[in-house]
């Protein structure tokens, strides 16, 4: 039988994105959320920047989430488990799509009530090595009224775009090609927590 990792790889191959509910166990989701909350309370989060290197800047009119980068050399127990899952996704995509993905980088993200991230592409000049975006949502509960959907603009063969709105339901994994799908985070009515990362074609 096809594994969940193979299914993700096939969907990436066929349509450039994949969505998997309950990708991680409820225990792992709750533990990652708990750790994230402790780090937040310890004041470890920073306003997210846009751009990279000399072009890096805080632009709260573009995005106003707060992030904390995962340190691959000092992963917590639960971060390591999630990292291992992403590793399996990486290998499956390489096998199916020959993308030569070599490594992963990621950060916790907290979108406070009222925050958003306007339409953008994850792969741009300074981060051309970002090939595949991988997001896991950690929220305890989410309903329509909470808003804060991830809105993807799927390019169509006729040049138009199809809009796909995805609720940040806890345990849900979203994977997509970083250089192909523009997307945004719609304003959220409730605190919204995730780990966002990128599979890269460099070490
Ligand atoms: O949290 C999300 O749904 C998307 C976040 C995002 O687009 C990003 O961090 O680049
Ligand atoms: Fe993004």
From TrEMBL:
Single GO MF annotation: L-ascorbic acid binding
Gene3D superfamilies: q2cbj1_9rhob like domain
Secretion signal span: none
Keywords on record: Dioxygenase, Iron, Metal-binding, Oxidoreductase, Vitamin C
A Pfam family the protein falls into: 2OG-FeII_Oxy_3
Swiss-Prot/TrEMBL GO biological process terms: cellular response to hypoxia
Origin superkingdom: Bacteria
Cofactor dependence: L-ascorbate
Domain Fe2OG dioxygenase: 97-201
InterPro entries linked: HIF_prolyl_hydroxylases, Oxoglu/Fe-dep_dioxygenase_dom, Pro_4_hyd_alph, Pro_4_hyd_alph_FE2OG_OXY
Entries under PANTHER family matching the protein: EGL NINE HOMOLOG-RELATED (PTHR12907), HIF PROLYL HYDROXYLASE, ISOFORM C (PTHR12907:SF26)
Protein name according to UniProt: Oxidoreductase, 2OG-Fe(II) oxygenase family
Species annotation: Algoriphagus machipongonensis
Lineage: Bacteria, Pseudomonadati, Bacteroidota, Cytophagia, Cytophagales
């Amino acid at each position: 039988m096809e594994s969940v990792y193979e299914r993700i790889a096939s969907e990436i191959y066929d349509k450039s994105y994949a969505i998997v509910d309950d990708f991680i166990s409820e225990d792992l989701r709750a533990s990652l959320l708990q750790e994230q909350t402790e780090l937040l309370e310890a004041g470890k989060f920073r306003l997210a920047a846009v751009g990279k290197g000399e072009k890096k800047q805080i632009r709260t009119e573009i995005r106003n989430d707060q992030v904390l980068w995962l340190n691959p050399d000092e992963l917590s127990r639960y971060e390591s488990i999630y990292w291992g899952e992403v590793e399996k996704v990486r290998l499956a995509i390489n096998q199916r799509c020959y993308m030569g993905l070599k490594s992963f980088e990621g950060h916790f993200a907290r979108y406070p009530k009222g925050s958003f991230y306007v339409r953008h592409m994850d792969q741009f000049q300074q981060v051309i090595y970002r090939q595949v975006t991988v997001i896991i949502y950690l929220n305890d509960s989410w309903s329509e009224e909470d808003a804060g959907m991830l809105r993807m603009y799927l390019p169509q063969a006729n040049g138009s775009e199809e809009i796909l709105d995805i609720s940040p339901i806890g345990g849900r994994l979203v994977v997509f090609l970083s250089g192909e799908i523009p997307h945004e985070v719609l304003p959220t009515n409730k605190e919204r927590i995730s780990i966002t990362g990128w599979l890269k074609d460099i070490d």
